[in-house]
Amino acid sequence: MYKLNRFQFLLFFSCFFYFLFICLFRYFKDFDLSKIFGLNLYRATHWLVNYYDFTFIKRGLVGTTIKFISFNNIITLELILIFSLIILFLFIYLVISIYNIFECINYIKLLFICFMFSHAFIYFYSLDLGRFDQINNILLILAIYVIFNFNKNFIYLGLIIFLGTLIHEAFLLIQFPMIISIFFFKEKSIKKNSLTKSFVNTSAIFSFGLITSMVIAKFGYVEYYSAFEMKKILIQITNFEPSLGVLETFFHNPLDHLFIGWNTIFCLDQMLCRPYTIITLIINNFPFLLFFIIFFWSISKNYRFKLEDIFLIFCTFIPLLAEIFITFVDYYRVDASTILNLFIFAIIFIKFSDHKSSSLINNINNHFIIYSSFSIFYSLIIISGHLSFNNFSSSVSPINYIIFHFTH
């Protein structure tokens, strides 16, 4: 899993230079050194909250770890930036290392190229630097590795689920469903266990997430401080001003705001109504989604999907479904997670399913240079266009802006 071949090195350094391109573009746009990286004070504030100052609190694990290893217990913005960069490139490295499970064929290479140069991967995660989702995505990749390489993996998976939930409770909506579905897929499709045994084993893994979520719900909310009081405490352990808006989210219970996501699902009168953002998602990530649609269409023509396949497909789109019900999962995080899930689904299905589409493989092998060049060139145009208008991962896409104003 960890030894990179020539193609993987090329992918990694290409992602690195894409990242440098994004950083330099941001700098020369405003000639402001503080804007060269995607880390902002809003996301950096999450890294300050810790168990030392507030006892047990949701999202406090990272801050506790950073404060433990920091100099004089001061969590500086520079320290957060360094760790954020390490996490970003570790995440990229782990995704690239997945390629080791495949033979060196152009069909697989194109999948990696389309995904890793997509707007939802290299652009989004570069501008979304410092988000805890990237740490939990690393845990997702590690969980996949554990599932397929260890037979007795309950303890390892339980630890991953426990850590992911303590890092950020959104893990239960974004990464956890994929872990459950992939584990069930292996139990039923690869190990050929009975449906009952597969269900029981999967339920045991599910219980780790259930127990951890109950712990968070019961003990993870602040009781003795206000958001303003938290801010006064955190100012003393850092060199920047913490965001009060972030600290206010530590008092929000998503169960009190169920179904609020319906407000943007079917509306058409606001720029961020879901129909506009979905169309934007498709345009921004067109090469990857085109590859996935053609891939899925080619296998669905004469393949009979089994229960474990359907469950895996369903869990791939759970972030989109969760967005309808949970207001605190931002749509741009949901979109990036959905693209990542589609990539993981394709990887698992190509590797472990019984169906192989020889016609599609031959077509890609014969036109690999054309398809890969189109994917890279398309993503470069999309990313450059976004960098010209946007400064943050949460900024409204210029594609979204054009679509909204074209229809109004």
Description of the molecule:
With 408 residues, the protein is mainly alpha-helical. The protein contains 23 helices and no strands. The longest helix is centred in the first third of the chain and has 25 residues, at 6-30.
| Number of continuous helical runs | 23
Cα radius of gyration in angstroms: 21 Å
Mean pLDDT reading? 87
| N/C terminus separation | 50 Å
Structural class: mainly alpha
Q: Which term fits the overall shape? A: globular
User: What is the count of distinct domains?
Assistant: 1
As a percent range, the share of helical residues equals: 55-70%
**How big a fraction of the residues is strand?**
under 5%
Order of helices and strands: HHHHHHHHHHHHHHHHHHHHHHH
Furnish the topology, listing elements before pairings.
Blueprint: H1 6-30, H2 41-46, H3 51-54, H4 61-69, H5 77-97, H6 106-116, H7 119-127, H8 132-149, H9 154-167, H10 171-174, H11 176-190, H12 195-219, H13 227-234, H14 244-248, H15 262-265, H16 274-284, H17 286-300, H18 307-316, H19 318-325, H20 331-352, H21 358-366, H22 368-389, H23 398-406
Task: Give the tags.
single chain, 408 residues, mainly alpha, globular
